[in-house]
Amino acid sequence: MKNSFNLLQVSKNLIxxxxxxxxxxxxxxxxxxxxxxxGFRCQKIKFSDKVDTVYNLYAKLGNKGPNFCFAGHTDVxxxxxxELWKINPFKSKVVNGSLIGRGAxxxxxxxxxxxxxxxxxxxxxxxxxxxxxxxxxxxxEEGRSTNGTQKVLKWLKNKGEKIDVCLIGEPTCEKKLGxxxxxxxxxxxxxxLTIFGVQGHVAYPHLAKNPARVxxxxxxxxxxxxxxxxxxxxQPSNLEVVNININNKADNVIxxxxxxxxxxxxxxxxxxxxxxxxxxxxxxKIAKKRDVKxxxxxxxxxxSYYSKPSVLCNLLSQAIYKTTKxxxxxxxxxxxxxxxxxxDYCEVVEFGLPNKTMHQVNESAKIGDLLKLRKIYSTLxxxxx
Length: 385
What we know:
9 helices; Aminopeptidase; 2 domains; four-stranded antiparallel sheet; single chain
């Protein structure tokens, strides 16, 4: 029987929603509509704070365990330089065998591929599965991640809802579909540092204290200090300077203050509290030596996480090999994901499209990869159930 689920059209429908984080712009409703067609019970969940309002979706098919959950996000990053796009980023189009549009690889098409795989499973099983399938879809992953997955998980727990395993459809592959899956991610912490000196004339440096000199010394020390060597699960932690600002328009004036920001991607050797303490001590030591005052503020966007490979990872590896003949590398590289919240509830594995164009101008997904990803997800569901 020919499958009626139109993978390409639904992908285009979802991409065409301009859901720049945290806006929904109809994206959750596109997913909800397709899931209801398959018999899912759908609950839209709204969470708000003083900053924004986010729409989330929890959809479930079946009433008994085990509960196989797919997690994903419909929010996307801004398009960036519009003049460099080949098309309107929110009017998706197939060009030379690839679907172009913001969110194509990160990660709207993965969501649609999983829905397509459910459709395939239900047709092959005549709508009978030994367990439940659920989807946890958020509109708050690319931004603050405060009104999305972590709050939905608490909401589910309070309702007595259990998730047994979770697949996240983030773009994990590096060069080819199937070459990599993820079972963890490094954490991310950003420090906004300001050094306060004494303003003065550049010809009389002994009468001033140049905060730029101290800032350079601190950043050089932090940049050159190796935080760790990594371990069996993670690559080494790394610190990168992302912004330096003195805002001094006069060539003959030693400035009063200098500011900079740096980000650390850290592995599970650290947690944010331990790393914050270490960095503060190092900054304080140099500032004291140079007799200047300083202020540092830390922002933590996510702790590192590691989900020990188990049933889901093994079955997914089998499904990938059956479709692509590739043995996926088990990785923890890359940026933060909602896996950091889900790992406290069940085994988590991340697998989706190649990530080469994510967040870039002309973000895209090859049509051939979409068809293969659909097959991988379908094979995985058949192996699991």
